[in-house]
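Inverse folding, one chain.
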């Protein structure tokens, strides 16, 4: 198993944001976390990436516990996070943003094949290579954020709210890119508020509510449940 999380608890001060959350991600899968705002999805991803430290539970990458490791150490193990809001360096050029990201894998000059893939997936970044990242549109910035993560050569790419604030044409492009990445062997863990998108793309889906896991299963099976929307918006699962 590529990633296993067991009984995860994360607190902000004395307030638990995530409680007793367990899940796994197998190599080659696309797994989606869904749930309303405040459900604990982003907190879970930040804990997996080492940005937040759990107060309880374990996070294992290929059976090795990574609890307490710094984010850069987890990145070196093959876990890359594209956070909600993208968080690119707006004052730097596209080139400079990619150079910063490539440092963990020996620099951009050693990553010619990865850079060629990035330009194939995101031709706009090639066109805007020497433009300030802050001048890119929201969709272009999201492409840069994903490209930056790919330069760490991740085995697992985590993308938090990839469609948030994007025009529909960019959303379609981003999800086409996810499908392409999976076909090339990248494992994906996505946070998505849209049930429709999650169920259409993912192999498996986890539903969080108020910091706890309330439902999980194969996407195709969950899509057939008549009560899924009811559960998503606060109802209880049928016995």
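Residues assigned per position:
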């Amino acid at each position: 198993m590529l990633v296993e999380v067991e009984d995860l608890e994360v607190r902000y001060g004395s307030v638990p944001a995530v409680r007793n959350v367990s899940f796994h991600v197998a190599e080659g899968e696309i797994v989606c976390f869904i749930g309303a705002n405040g459900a604990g999805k982003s907190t879970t991803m930040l804990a997996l990436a080492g940005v937040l430290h759990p107060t309880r539970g374990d996070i294992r990458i290929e059976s090795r516990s990574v609890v307490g490791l710094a984010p850069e150490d987890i990145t070196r193990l093959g876990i890359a996070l594209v956070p909600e809001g993208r968080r690119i360096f707006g004052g730097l050029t596209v080139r400079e943003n990619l150079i910063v990201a490539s440092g963990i894998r020996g620099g951009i000059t050693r990553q010619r094949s990865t850079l060629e893939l990035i330009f194939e997936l995101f031709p706009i970044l090639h066109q805007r290579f020497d433009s300030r990242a802050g001048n890119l549109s929201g969709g272009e910035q999201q492409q840069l954020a994903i490209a930056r993560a790919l330069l760490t050569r991740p085995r697992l790419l985590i993308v938090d709210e990839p469609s948030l604030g994007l025009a529909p044409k960019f959303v379609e492009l981003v999800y086409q890119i996810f499908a392409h990445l999976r076909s090339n062997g990248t494992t994906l863990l996505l946070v998505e508020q849209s049930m429709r998108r999650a169920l259409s793309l993912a192999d498996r889906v986890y539903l969080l509510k108020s910091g706890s896991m309330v439902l999980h299963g194969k996407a195709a099976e969950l899509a057939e449940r008549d009560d899924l929307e009811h559960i998503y918006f606060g109802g209880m699962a049928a016995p």
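The chain has ten helices and ten strands. The first strand starts at residue 3 and ends at 12.
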